[in-house]
## 1
Amino acid sequence: MDRGLHVLLLTALATVASLPGPAAAQATGEPAALPAQQPQVVEPAVKRRDVEPAAIDTENFEAGAFVGTVSIEDFGSSLLYGARIAYHFTEDLFAEATVGSSKAGKTSYEELSGSVELLTDSERQFTYYDLALGWNALPGEVFFGGKRAMPSAVYFTLGAGSTTFAGDDHFTVALGAGLRVLANDWIAVHLDVRDHVFQSDLLGKDKQTQNLQVGLGITAFF
Amino acid sequence: MNRLVLRPLLACCLALFGASHAADARAAKKPPTVVVQDAYADMRSGPGRGFPATYSVERDASIQLLRQRTDWIKVRTANGREGWVHRSQLERTLTPGGAEVRLAGPVPAARTEHRWEVGLATGDFGGANVIAVNGAYALTPNLLARADVNHLLGSFSDGWLGTAGIAHVFMPSWRVSPFAGIGGGVLSISPKATLVQTEDRTDSTAYAAFGVRGFLTNRFLLQAEYRGYVVFTSRDENEEIDEWTVGFTYFF
């Protein structure tokens, strides 16, 4: 026991004593080992590389508005207006959020009966949003006359969202296709068709409704 | 006009206004000039591989970088010709001072070194359809702080669910990695208008999650997730709801 403690103490002492040794040698010994007049044999060939981030505008966002017409199943066609914002991930893929609003007309039953109103005025409001993934399937150019060519793309979108109509929110799948033509470097014109598909039990029976929209829009890249 | 529409419209008008001002600012600011180091760089008529190459610039030519869209950079040569060059052909360009130029874009290291993730997902929440927008911040490559907003659209009721939580990605450097997480949030449910009116209710909720995510490219993830929710209702017993979602995530 006593001997063990002795050994431990000695070991500790030896460790402490040995610690400053090399450090002191480094601090004092090195300048002596390398005299100033001795030429440096190897010059480091590695240069510091400067990297500068290029100060260019990255224009991957696209935002704008559109007007068009939407055919609300059983309720006729109405004027539609809305807005879209998109983010372009690559030259092929983009994500797009769209909102739109319209006001449904009357069903043929309401028109014929004259006085029957299936929905109140506020329930006729048709408002939707959808979040979609888009694919520029056919990039190309649109030619106007012999001298003018504008970059364009035919794209397809697949999205999901919600449609508020007749006082309820409906889960909606939105399938779309469109043509985007770039008027200049940052302004684009869109012509697109979109089908909003949702289940509705408004007229008594649960059924799938197809609500087709055609729109003309303008967007800006920023 | 509906508020849902009015606000984004306003935002878009502002964005358009902002963009036009940015264009003015660009016109005033001199674009950066670089020197081509590749043997040549193809200039195309549009920002995509499908557009024809209309001109080429050779090594040591100095070009101005005008704007970047995804991986394509619009450049102007000394003699005034303009075209779009792919980022890969400009990665070795130098500034007139000899410094390297870094262009924005994805690199393989981003798979483990990225900070932010945003994503869209859709799926099933206890029989209702769900549309989710989610975001995450990588505290470390393994640990994500995440938050999401879910719109629930069911046959009998609609609702909103907002959550925040953490997730542990087991193997962030693997192409496909499992992850697990926990979190909590608020669930708000309102019954459909065509049903007998019952009260809307808002309850707090907590979840445990397990999922798998896989890299599609250097900037995309595909993510599938299961969450088991416990809803702390004001009734005698808590409600348990299963959620399954699948979605894609963009990271940067």
## 2
Amino acid sequence: MSRDTLRRALARLDTDAGYGARLAVANGLDADPSDDDALPPIRLAILRDFTVEPMVPVLRAELARSGFRATVWVGDFDTISRDAMTPGGSLDAFGADLILILRWLEQTAPTLATGFVMLPTDQVQATISEVAGRIGSELAAIRSRTQAPILINTFPLPDLTTLGILDAQVEFGHRRAVEDLNRAILSVAHGYSDVLVVDVARLVSRIGSRAAINERDWQTSRSPLAVPLVLALGAEYAKFVRALRGRLRKVLVLDCDNTLWGGVVGEDGLGGIRLDPGYPGSAYLAFQREILNLRARGVLIAVVSKNNEADVLEVLREHPHMLIHESDLAAWRINWQDKATNLREIAEELNIGVDSLVLADDSEFECGLVREQLPDVGVLSLGAEPARFVSLMTEVAFFDSLSLTADDRSRADMYVADRERKASVHATTSIEEYLASLEMEALIGPPGPTEIARVAQLTQKTNQFNLTTIRYTEGDIELRAAAQESDVHCLRLRDRFSDLGLVGVAIVDYHGEDATIDTLLLSCRVLGRGVEDTFIAHVAHVASRRGASRLIGTYRPTAKNEQVSGFFQNRGFELVGGEQGASRWELDIEGSQLTTSPWIAVRG
Amino acid sequence: MTNMEADLRQLMADVFGVEVDQIDEDASIDTIDSWDSLKHLNLVLALEERFAVSFTEQETVEILNYELIRATLKDHGVDLAA
């Protein structure tokens, strides 16, 4: 009964962007406190100097929508420093997975907020330094007791100031002072591992401060967040949680007619579709440009369309204004099958789960069908106004992540190379011959300073070829890489077609004669090449050199890593036990028969 | 009960985390345990959004029971009985 209440409340979020809909979800979560409904728990602590309570149900609802059941602890009013600096206090007792610190300028630095014209310039600078210093001390105190990621915020820029039109004329105006403070906050954050900045100034500027800030409730209850900001901020924190917990979408799957261009190519023909620089073509072109921007930050692009394949390919290849071309696509399904089937096939072709896909489609019918049949697929219902497509897509932020590595920038190209590679399989006779023809080269070694982000990202994003699925932050990886008793092995791979980048991670802990594999994962883009044999042989070799005689591995099953359930068994490991569904395996390194793949040359 | 009145009751139930049948005409800050000053803030925001109204400073501190909420909404041109 109550389970249905929660499910109905969550479904309502697809079409209702309001506050009431989110209150209903929070209420549904409380009415259904069971924890066996596949919503993994997460504990959030909030330290604050203003009234944040109206945002809490939104935060819980947005997290439930992203698949988490959040338990939220809110510290006392305006006690951030005390909460941060009391070892064994309420914050420690709560045991947070994530710590949010929320500050409001009027509380944190009242002179800067409401007495700016009375402050001499040197006092302005001193106040900025004092606030930055205070935030730094709190972060240091928290970091000394927990590695939980900490989110801090910027301040909205003042848009009503005593100086009025003069503010923009003077060198040290009010707005400029808050900008400087925000910049100082960014610098403080960069000094700590896993301290991230939630840019409230950006959210308020998007909404407009008149609509974002609630003057009435600020005075009556020290509650400055108006509904639009409450909604935006709750959603923003959920984006951080998704990124930190590896809930990242990887592929944008696009419809064609009335999505990439105006009109229906099958009826209007190549010359009849709207895709010229005037409206409405201009709006579709702007959408295409933003899609290519996403591609440049590592999102794969695919197409599903109910059309004759030849018609759509002709547009991709021949249309003079088309910005997206065949060579930008990682995969496509252009046929008369239903979209759910096509989406499943695309996921299979790209070797990823359907929950990595986002479908963007103008048809509410198709969107509803996919939500119904493939609830794990992200759905972006574009509607009928192409001028709004870009902001719709950017606001839902399906593809937000917390890093942008060199690998991200070239990922889309690598998948295209992969599609071409597969096309060339037909020219060779055996799979071994094909693999040999790729002329693969692996470089295995510890992570360099610029690779830490990529290693953390792989632990967060890799689901299929991942024996233990333990998620790590950049700070965690730095610690492990520096530790005497551990090795972080990174595998970089290149072949005849492209440099595939850093695609494998193994973390090994040494204790006496034992070398224990804490993490072993491979990016899905290199599966089926025998890379794993080369990698585990290398891991065993290094372990033996470090004096270990036994290699110990754990397989921890998840919904997605079934394909590696036999990994240890197939390589001669012996089952020695296990707990909570996980199995534990041992290999006597000396007598083992680990074989490397002869078609991969190893360096490093 | 009109649809709007049912909506109001559901919304209040969602704000206070109670079953909808606990929200009757006598519901007030004295009869609902979870109706505290913080939940009251959420209620005001939710009411303003749902009925597209903007309460005055005075009204927000006054609407502490079901009857007053209904009357104040009516002052803003929202007649739940209509």
